[in-house]
Design brief:
The complex is a heterodimer. Chain A is mainly alpha-helical. Helices cover 73% and strands 3% of the residues of chain A. In chain B, 73% of the residues lie in helices and 4% in strands. The longest helix of chain B has 31 residues. The N and C termini of chain B lie far apart (56 Å). Classes of the chains: A mainly alpha, B mainly alpha.
Chain lengths: 314, 298
C-alpha cells in the first residue's frame, strides 16, 4: 500500500507558510488569509458533498460565525480572540444541530433550496437590523489574543495569520482522520445508496446530522476567522451568492482529499484578485467559464488531476 | 380598511409579477428537471434590452403607445436568441447528469451572463419610466395606482391560462405532459424529446425575458437585479412544488400577499417574511404545495 503523505504535505505547507509569512507583501498575506478562511468553509462543504448533499445556504453559518464573533464587542465589550472563536463555534453548532433535525430529511434540490431559504432568512433579518449597521455591516476589533494585548502592535496581523494557519491545519488533520474512520467512510456509501446503508445497520439520519453540524461549525469558524482577519463583516456573507461561491470552490477543488479545499480556495481567490485587478467587470465571467470547464472535463475537480498524475507514475 | 385594501391590491400586483417570473422557471424544471439559475440573467437581459430599445423608441419621438410593443419584441428577441444558444450550445451536453450538477451549470452560466450584461450595458442604471405612467391611473379606496399594474395582472393571468389550456388541450401540450411523466417512454413512442427540450427552454427563456421587460419600467435597471429576482422566483417555485403550474400560481399569490402585508404592517421583516414562508411550507410539505406523486423506482 502506498504511504499516505497527506499529513506530511499539510505540515510542510503549514511550516512554509508560517516561516515565509513575515517576508510576504501584505497583499499576498491577505490573499492567503482569505483563501484559508474560505478553505476551512469548503472543507466542511466537502464532507457534505461526500455525503451526497449540496447546500446552497452555507453562507448562513459563515455569516452566523462572523456575527457571533463580531457582536461580542458591541454586546458585551469582549474583544478576546479566543472567546470570539469559541462563541462562533458554540452558536453555529447549536443552530445547526437544531436545523439538521429538519434538513436531514431532505435530499438533492430540496436540501439545497431549504438551506438557501434559511440563509436568506438570516440575510433578510440582518439587512433590516440597523443597530448592526444594516447592509453596511460593522467593524470587528480584536484587542487581545489569549489574554495578550495585540491590538496596534506590529505583529498583530501576523499573529492572527498564525492562528488561522494553525486552526486550518488542525481541522484538516482531524478531517483527514475522520474521513478514514468507520463513520467517515459511510459518507460516500450514503451518497451511493442510502437503502443499503440502512440495511447494513448504520443510521443514515444520524450520519447526515453529524456531518451537517461538522460542516456548519467549520463554516462558522471560517466566518469568524474572516471577521477577525478582515476586520469588517456585513450581511452579504449570508446572501445566496456567497453560498454559491462555496459550492463553486467545492466543485473546483473536488472531494478527493482534505488538501483539495485549500488548494481550490487559493486558486479561486487568486483568480478573483487578479481578475478584479485587471478587469473588474469580467471576473465573474472568468469564474463561470472555469466552472463550466471543470464540470465538463474534470468531474472530480482539480484534485483528480493530481490523482491521475500519481497513478500514472506508479 | 384602506390599509387592508392596499395590502390586497399590492399583494395582487406583486403576485402577478412573481407569477410571470416563476412560470418560466417551473416550466423548464417540470420538463427538463433543470433548476435554471440563469433564469435570473434572462430576466436581467430582458429588462436591459427593453430599457434600451424602448428608450431609443422614446428618443426618436415615435408614438408612445408603441413602446409596449417594443418591450414585447425585446423580450421575444432575448428569448429566441439566448434560449437556443444556451440549450443547444451548452445544456444539451449535460442531460442525464445529476440535478445538482445541472444547477451548477446554470449557476456558471448565470455568472457569465452577469458580466456579459455589464460589458454590454455598463454598470450605470437605466431608467425606463415612461410606460409605467402612460396608461393613466385607477382609484380604489382613496388609493391611486397606475393602470400599468392592471396590465401586469392581465398578462400574468393570460399567460397562466394560455399555458394551462395548451397543456391540457393541444397535441403539443399533451406531448409535453408525456415527456414530463416519462422521458424514455415518450421517446420510445416516437416523441422527439430533444426538440421538446429545445422548444421548452426557448419558451421558458422568453418568459423570463418578458418578466424582465415588464419590470423594467418599475425599477432602475442595474447590475444585481438578476440575483435578487432569481432567489424570489426560486422561493415561489419551490413553495408551489417544482414543475407545477397551479402550484406556482398559488405560491405567487401566497408570497405576494404575505410580502404586501409585512411591508404594510412590519416593514422591517420584508425579505425575512418571504423566506420564512418558503421554509415553513417546505417543512410542512417537503416537496412544495403541489408536488406530483412520484413513482418509486428501485
Amino acid at each position: 500500500m502506498k504511504r499516505d503523505r497527506t499529513i506530511g504535505i499539510l505540515t510542510a505547507v503549514m511550516v512554509a507558510m508560517l516561516v515565509l509569512a513575515p517576508t510576504l507583501p501584505s497583499w499576498a498575506m491577505f490573499l492567503f488569509t482569505v483563501s484559508l478562511c474560505y478553505g476551512i468553509v469548503v472543507l466542511g462543504m466537502m464532507l457534505l458533498i461526500r455525503t451526497g448533499l449540496v447546500s446552497f445556504g452555507h453562507g448562513l453559518y459563515y455569516c452566523l460565525g462572523a456575527y457571533a464573533a463580531g457582536t461580542l464587542e458591541p454586546l458585551f465589550g469582549i474583544t478576546e480572540l479566543a472567546i470570539m472563536l469559541g462563541s462562533a463555534i458554540a452558536v453555529t453548532a447549536a443552530i445547526s444541530a437544531v436545523l439538521a433535525l429538519l434538513l436531514r430529511k431532505y435530499r438533492d434540490i430540496f436540501f439545497a433550496m431549504l438551506s438557501l431559504a434559511f440563509s436568506m432568512i438570516l440575510y433578510g433579518l440582518l439587512v433590516k437590523t440597523s443597530s448592526l449597521g444594516s447592509t453596511d455591516g460593522f467593524n470587528v476589533t480584536v484587542k487581545t489574543m489569549f489574554g495578550v494585548h495585540i491590538a496596534g502592535t506590529p505583529y498583530e496581523r501576523y499573529l492572527i495569520f498564525v492562528l488561522t494557519v494553525l486552526i486550518c491545519w488542525i481541522c484538516a488533520v482531524l478531517m483527514h482522520y475522520y474521513l478514514k474512520s468507520h463513520r467517515g467512510r459511510l459518507a460516500e456509501a450514503i451518497r451511493d445508496n442510502e437503502l443499503r446503508v440502512e440495511y447494513m445497520g448504520a443510521s443514515v439520519a444520524n450520519t447526515i446530522h453529524l456531518h451537517y453540524v461538522i460542516s456548519a461549525v467549520l463554516a462558522g469558524l471560517g466566518g469568524a476567522l474572516m471577521a477577525v482577519s478582515v476586520g469588517h463583516i456585513d450581511p452579504e456573507m449570508a446572501y445566496w451568492t456567497t453560498s454559491g461561491e462555496f459550492v463553486f470552490i467545492s466543485i473546483l477543488s473536488g472531494t478527493g482529499s482534505v488538501l483539495a479545499p485549500f488548494l481550490g480556495a487559493t486558486i479561486f481567490e487568486s483568480i478573483r484578485s487578479f481578475a478584479y485587478e485587471y478587469s473588474p467587470n469580467t471576473w465573474q465571467m472568468a469564474l463561470g467559464i472555469t466552472m463550466l470547464l471543470v464540470i465538463m472535463f474534470l468531474p472530480g475537480g482539480l484534485w483528480s488531476l493530481f490523482k491521475r498524475a500519481t497513478r500514472s507514475s506508479a | 380598511m384602506t390599509q387592508l385594501v392596499a395590502v390586497l391590491v399590492d399583494g395582487l400586483i406583486y403576485s402577478s409579477w412573481l407569477f410571470i417570473m416563476a412560470i418560466g422557471l417551473t416550466l423548464i424544471y417540470g420538463v427538463m428537471k433543470i433548476l435554471n439559475i440563469a433564469h435570473g440573467s434572462l430576466f436581467a437581459l430582458g429588462a436591459y434590452t427593453a430599457a434600451s430599445m424602448a428608450g431609443y423608441w422614446f428618443e426618436q419621438g415615435y408614438p408612445a403607445m408603441g413602446s409596449y410593443a417594443v418591450m414585447l419584441v425585446a423580450a421575444i428577441l432575448v428569448g429566441i436568441i439566448a434560449g437556443p444558444l444556451l440549450e443547444r450550445g451548452l445544456l444539451r451536453f449535460m442531460y442525464g447528469r445529476d440535478e445538482i450538477v445541472l444547477v451548477l451549470v446554470t449557476y456558471a452560466t448565470f455568472l457569465i451572463l452577469e458580466d456579459f450584461i455589464k460589458l454590454v450595458w455598463g454598470v450605470d442604471p437605466y431608467f425606463l419610466y415612461q410606460p409605467y405612467g402612460l396608461l393613466g391611473n385607477f382609484d380604489i379606496a382613496d388609493l391611486t395606482y397606475p393602470n400599468y399594474n392592471l396590465l401586469l395582472l392581465a398578462i400574468s393571468i393570460a399567460i397562466g391560462g394560455l399555458l394551462a389550456w395548451a397543456l391540457a388541450r393541444t397535441r403539443q401540450g399533451r406531448i409535453l405532459i408525456a415527456v414530463i411523466h416519462d422521458r424514455e417512454m415518450a421517446a420510445s413512442q416516437g416523441v422527439n424529446v430533444g426538440r421538446v427540450y429545445f422548444v421548452t427552454f426557448t419558451l421558458g427563456a422568453m418568459l423570463g425575458a418578458l418578466g424582465g421587460a415588464l419590470t423594467a419600467p418599475m425599477i432602475s435597471v442595474q447590475p444585481g437585479i438578476g440575483a435578487e429576482t432569481i432567489v424570489l422566483a426560486f422561493a415561489v417555485v419551490v413553495i408551489g412544488g417544482l414543475g407545477s403550474l397551479p402550484g406556482a400560481a398559488l405560491a405567487a399569490l401566497l408570497v405576494g400577499l404575505v410580502r404586501a402585508a409585512t411591508i404594510h404592517f412590519r416593514p422591517e421583516l420584508d425579505l425575512f417574511s418571504i423566506y420564512f414562508v418558503m421554509a415553513a411550507v417546505l417543512i410542512a410539505r417537503p416537496k412544495g404545495l403541489f408536488s406530483a406523486q412520484e413513482a418509486r423506482k428501485i
